What does this fold into?
Amino acid sequence: MRRNSKPFVKREEAAQHRINDKIFASEIRLVIEGQEPQVMTVVKAIALAEEQELDLVEISPNATPPVCKIMDYKKFIYNQKRKQKELKAKQSKVILKEIRFGPNTDDHDFAFKLAHAKKFLEEGSKVKAFVFFKGRTIVFKDRGEILLLKFAQELAELGTVEQLPKLEGKKMILLINPKKK
It folds into this structure.
């Protein structure tokens, strides 16, 4: 056994809402479905909640008086977590794939990289094609632009151009989004 060890204490989740005895206000506005909101004391509201074997939950602590509702708090938290999980599952992450060309890229290399780009777009990834100008090849800006426009034209049925060729430093960049199915 370790020396100077603290006894094991179960860590409880920090509650996002104040419930039952944790509500500090003397008066609250109780919202009950199908009825008008009522202003009453916390003690009376807790008694009502206990009668129904539910919890009194503070929904809006900054209002005057604070707004509370009677509900099954554990069920409420469970449903909230489930909704967040569903929203997270529905989110799709955008994957960006890069394809690099030189200003003097040959036809075979172009076809090879075009096949990769087609595969990426079919998978649903975004494609960033760029021509990298090394040293004095920067004088061939027009070749790079023609190469990228040809690339975009070849991929027209699989993707839409998000950004036309644009020179940024030593790179000329083209962005292509996959078409929605």
